[in-house]
Design brief:
The structure holds 2 protein chains of 2 kinds. Chain A is an alpha/beta fold. Chain A has helices at 25-33, 54-70, 80-88, 91-94; strands at residues 2-8, 11-20, 41-45, 49-52, 72-76. In chain A, strands 1, 2, 3, 4 and 5 form a 5-stranded mixed beta sheet that branches. In chain A, a hairpin with a 2-residue loop joins strand 1 and strand 2 (11-20). In chain A, helix 1 (25-33) runs parallel beside helix 2. Chain A is globular. Chain B is an alpha+beta fold. The chains are: A alpha/beta, B alpha+beta. The A-B interface holds A 19, 21-23, 50-55, 57-58, 61-62, 64-65, 68, 80-81, 84-85, 88-91, 93-95 and B 12, 15-16, 34, 37-38, 40-41, 44-45, 48, 94, 96-101, 103, 105-106, 108-109, 111-112, 115-116.
């Protein structure tokens, strides 16, 4: 997994690539949470993401809860495998996916 | 149908070895990448559970058998451990219609596995938890 962060004013764009799974999810979580202060627009770019498991979904849900309080969160460029997981878990209903 | 058996310590640090052995085997059996990715998610959920919960602090082995039938477009994965008896299919089904605020964090792994595979079964035999999943592509 690789995480790249770009901050422009109050917007944070996170490009995550590879796999967000049991092993990598904690690192993904701390990488993003460490940069959320003063952010009201969080954009998670999944164009390089191969797949996500429940460990990754827990992080996404936790980020969504934080951003509900301080702004908005958008997920973009989701591949078919990730989209399937988001749909069957109902996550596609509670997240903003572009 | 051909198969491969992998036996490792039930330690999460082995997940990359397991995933890569299974992926190589599936590739050699003609399994499409999209299906392989779903299998990788299953490994993360099930092997992850075995590593985290099956043996408490004692440690133990996990056995993974992967079988593929290129003619029938069929893949099957069996996970075995000798840890605490646990039927994951008896879990409480998470309410996936709740809002982000109402959702509990966790409890989704086995639910995802059930949804992305065609078939899932569990049995406890000879002191082993045996969980089997299968999918056609």
């Amino acid at each position: 997994m690789n995480v790249e962060k770009n901050i422009t004013g109050s917007e944070l764009v996170v490009n995550v690539s590879g796999r967000v799974d049991t092993v990598t999810a904690p690192e993904f979580e701390s990488q993003v949470k460490n940069s959320l202060e003063g952010i009201n627009n969080l954009r998670l770019d999944f164009s390089g993401l191969d797949y996500i498991s429940s460990a990754g979904l827990r992080v996404i849900l936790s980020l969504q809860k934080i951003m509900n309080k301080q702004g908005k969160m958008v997920i973009c460029n989701v591949n078919e495998t990730v989209q399937d997981v988001l749909e069957v878990t109902g996550f596609s209903e509670i997240l903003t996916i572009e | 149908m051909k198969n491969k058996e992998i036996i490792v310590d039930a330690d999460i640090s082995n997940i990359n070895i397991v995933t890569s052995l299974v992926n190589d085997f599936l590739e050699s059996g003609g399994c499409p990448v999209k299906t392989t990715m779903k299998i990788d998610i299953v490994i993360d959920e099930i092997f992850g559970n075995i590593c985290n919960y099956a043996y408490g602090n004692q440690g133990g082995k996990a056995e993974i058998i992967v079988a593929v039938d290129e003619d029938a477009n069929f893949v099957e994965l069996t996970f075995k451990d000798c840890g605490i008896k646990f039927d994951p299919l008896e879990h409480k089904v998470p309410d996936v219609s709740l809002s982000a605020e109402e959702r509990e964090i966790g409890g989704l792994g086995i639910f995802i596995v059930e949804k992305i595979m065609d078939k899932i079964s569990y049995e406890y035999s000879n002191g082993q938890n045996v969980l089997c999943v299968a999918k056609r592509w």
